[in-house]
Amino acid sequence: MLLLPPSKALPQDLIRGTFELTKTNVQTLRERVMNTLAKKKQNDEEGSVLLHLSTFSLACAHTWVCLAKAEEIKGGKTVLIFSVDCRSRLDPPIPETYFGNCIVGRVAVAETEGLLGEDGLFVAVNAITEALRSLDDGIFNGAENWVSKFLDFSLYKRIYSIAGSQWFGVYNTDFGWGKPKKAELVSIDKTEAVSLSDSKNGGGAVEVGLALKKQYMETFVSLFPSQSKVFEQL
Hints:
7 strands
């Protein structure tokens, strides 16, 4: 018999929200980071940094900043955990048709004060870039220490995690009865993760899903630019 842990009770004021970032929204975020980088270059502050400005990085970074502000995190360091597709990074690489899990986790760490500041988006993107840069040393480099590192999260003020990716193409999935009209990751209600997927509206947009207490969701909504928002009281 399989024994499962007791189900975690949900807060009564928990609200699930789904937000769409259009291609235009993402480009606006990209330009903000590039403008900040240009200013730092003029002032000889991290001007030579090469940042990872993909849609995934920018969507994760902006969500990270908005969450830290909405939840009013104070001091210390904040963490964002996300997964990386390893198929093309292995030697020899695994073909894209591989059916199975081939991912590794990466941990982006940033000073909370930096995330809350004027250059918060730049700080978040820079932290994500640093986490991705560690892949250059080899996918499995330091694997013997992964478990111990994941157990050290008590050192951080707040831990956020990303579940999914817009590259999964969930809205293009068709098992014979048509493509989905709405896709959600139901586990985020209890895991407190942020879901990320492509958008049902296409056009390079992404959907960001999360579940927050009402007071935090109201602030998050005011900070997060989105073409469409869907809310559900849980």
